[in-house]
Give the backbone structure.
Amino acid sequence: MVLGDGTAIRFAVAGVGPVVVCVPGWVSHLELGWAMPAERLFYESLANGRTVVRYDRPGCGLSGATDRSDVVELELEVIEAVTKAVRADRFDLVGTSFGAPLAVKFAARRPESVDRLVLYGGWVQGDQVSPPALRQHLLGLVEQHWGFASDVLVEIFAPDADAGFRATFSTYQRQSASPATARRLLAACYEIDVSEDLARIGGVQTTVIHRADDRAAPVAEGKRLAAGIAGATLKLLPGRTHVPFAGDVETLVDAIRAGLGLPRLPRTARPSLTPRQAEVAALVVRGWSNRQIAEELVITERSAESHIERILVRMGFRSRAQIAAWYAATHPTG
């Protein structure tokens, strides 16, 4: 899909049912995100009973780069274009983190298109998210030391996550956007203000969800969102993790599904690999070719290729990069 200015936008669709568009929080990568077990489970849980539409905003993941600085207006164009691409005249919006105020902006502008609005970890005014000195420090860090900054931000976004998730999510952020794009989007997070948009969301059933001790977005801002939208329901959950697919994900998924009018899901086991497939996946992480894997495991090159094909089918992946990202996330080295 291409916007009017020529920017290529990539989106992904999963599930069956009424359309729900998920507005991403900050940086994202459709392919690598689907390879992260926690993120994939989060979206698959929402896709049970809904057609879930995810997208990478301009400059992130699989979408094309852009020189435009009007981040918010550009995002509203993207949401409009994506919904047209999937032929949805009416749909639900789920906005997480920065995606929450962006979803508010869209719903205020197009309330006739939005059936249900679910906002998680959001805010009304970006300049209330953190003190000015800290905002400037983080912006400078992202711009000048993106590698170190991505580690610092993981500590803020997912302080209780294990070592495997932290390492994988830090890399995921860096692979999702350049330092310049990440800095521009973070600045937009701090600059957005939806205080005048809240009253315009008339007739849209809204659920605001916030973890009570969220380290990245103060719970006071979540309460302001709920208070400003007529008829909105506020659900406070325990925890201090900001990333929606980290921490107590099951409780959060239950709350989001309730906001979408969906029932709670039964807990199910995730697919796993055989011991031999796990060995192959560990070598894929190293970037080894089929021939190298075959030589290491003393099997034929065709057998190595077959193992990789079975891993892709078993896990629902499409590329070796997804295998590598999944294995790194689920097999921490310390």
Q: What stands out?
A: The radius of gyration is 20 Å. The chain has two domains: 11-259, 275-330. The first helix runs from residue 30 to 35. The chain has a mean pLDDT of 92.
